[in-house]
Design brief:
Elements lengths: L19 H4 L8 E3 L3 E6 L2 E7 L5 H6 L5 E2 L11
Parallel strand pairs: 3-4
Antiparallel strand pairs: 1-2, 2-3
Length: 81
């Protein structure tokens, strides 16, 4: 679940790319990312899609992400409280 206040970040995934590891200050510092579009887990090969924002399709998230997005199986919608 994610607090609805996080959804106010605009176009957050557009800046996520393979070069992001240079900005993170070290490998392994960031393990999970929550944006207005999705909840992601940082893995060795890129970003694993864990949940999607309500009303968004996986395709919309893929189109908005520059980095290597890993999609495995059915991706559930986030539960907003």
């Amino acid at each position: 679940m994610i607090d609805k206040r996080v959804r106010n970040v605009s176009n957050a995934l557009e800046g996520i790319s393979d070069s992001m590891t240079l900005m993170l200050g070290g490998i392994g510092c960031v393990k999970k990312i929550a944006t207005n579009l999705a909840f992601l887990k940082v893995v060795q090969d890129g970003f694993k899609l864990i949940e999607r924002a309500p009303g968004l399709s996986v395709e919309q998230i893929v189109d908005s992400t520059q980095g290597n997005l890993i999609v495995e199986g059915e991706i559930p919608e986030m539960k907003i409280f």
